[in-house]
Specification:
Layout (H helix, E strand, L loop, with lengths): L1 E9 L3 E4 L2 E2 L4 H11 L3 E5 H5 L9 E5 L11 E4 L2 H10 L10 E6 L1 H7 L5 E7 L7 E2 L8 E9 L9 E8 L1
Parallel strand pairs: 1-7, 1-8, 4-5, 4-7, 5-6
Antiparallel strand pairs: 2-3, 2-9, 8-11, 10-11
């Protein structure tokens, strides 16, 4: 199984403010949808609550310490990142094949807890610095190797330049 962190972060590693994104990048949303559709997505409760409704064609695993958290239909609630990964790996009662991808989609605390156990990072680096209250952890060049990058200039739909970066664990 491939455990992939997927995020969009500014050059100062800002992810969001007040439980919301600080930019609107339609192409990044499309890429997120393409990569995560049909897969398990693991997230913290606040990230889940930032969505208007569960994302289609994905199995949501929500991490929360709230004992009586109301489980939305089709979603799974667990207490830890370890439990979330276990559920994603063995959901069908059979361990996932090596090439099956499970995505960690946030937020900041969940990224911090998973950066040392993930195999891959799909990062959209937004070329700006913004004020935020949630940040992506530093990517340590001793642990991660950049294997792909694709630059996108700003345009009428995208307020900022951004680059898709794919890292794998060394």
């Amino acid at each position: 199984m491939i455990l992939t962190i997927i995020a969009a972060a500014a050059e100062n590693n800002a992810l969001g403010k007040d439980n919301d994104l600080v930019w609107h990048l339609p192409d990044d949303f499309k890429r997120f949808k393409t990569l995560t559709s049909g897969h398990f997505i693991i997230m913290g409760r606040k990230t889940f609550e930032s969505f208007p409704k569960p994302l289609p064609n994905r199995t949501h695993v929500i991490i929360t310490r709230q004992k009586d958290y109301p489980v939305p239909e089709g979603c799974i609630v667990v207490e830890s990142i370890e439990d979330a990964i276990k559920i994603a790996v063995t959901s069908s009662g059979v361990e996932k094949p090596e090439n099956e991808e499970v995505f960690i989609i946030g937020g900041g605390e969940i990224y911090k807890q998973s950066i040392n156990i993930a195999n891959k990072i799909e990062l959209t680096r937004v070329h700006t610095e913004v004020e935020a209250d949630t940040f992506f952890p530093e990517i340590d060049g001793n642990d991660w190797k950049l294997i792909e990058e694709e630059y996108h200039p700003k345009d009428e739909k995208h307020q900022f330049n951004f680059t898709y970066l794919t890292y794998i664990r060394k």
